[in-house]
Write a structure and sequence with these properties.
Blueprint lengths: L12 H12 L3 E2 L1 H8 L3 H8 L8 E4 L3 E5 H9 L17 H5 L1
Antiparallel strand pairs: 1-3, 2-3
Helix pairs in contact: 1-2, 2-3
């Protein structure tokens, strides 16, 4: 089932379940799909994908699009990877404490 708008506020429970099921069978997800599937904010996921951290779980697909490896990102999340991303901003990676000093 193709859903044009992946915002959870606009999806019925049936549509949400269909999207999650479809994403669970894919090896690579778009940033929007990964944000919905893993429950991570779209802005934060884009910032992570464009930073040094994202090199561990992203694949560049063409000149503009990055795809998220579902298995690698799942492993990243299980290892506590989100706790290391506190200082990420749109301009890229920075360590929260060291950059402020």
């Amino acid at each position: 089932m193709a859903v044009k708008n992946l915002r959870t506020a606009n999806l019925s429970p049936e549509e949400y379940a269909a999207v999650i099921t479809a994403c669970s069978h894919k090896d690579f997800l778009t940033v929007k799909e990964a944000a919905l599937y893993f429950g991570v904010g779209l802005y934060r996921l884009r910032a992570m994908a464009n930073s040094e951290i994202g090199e561990a779980f992203t694949v560049q697909c063409g000149p503009r699009q990055r795809l998220i490896s579902r298995e690698k990102f799942k492993k990243f999340m299980e290892e506590g990877g989100m706790s290391t991303t506190y200082g990420i901003r749109a301009e890229g990676w920075r360590k929260d404490k060291e950059a402020d000093d």
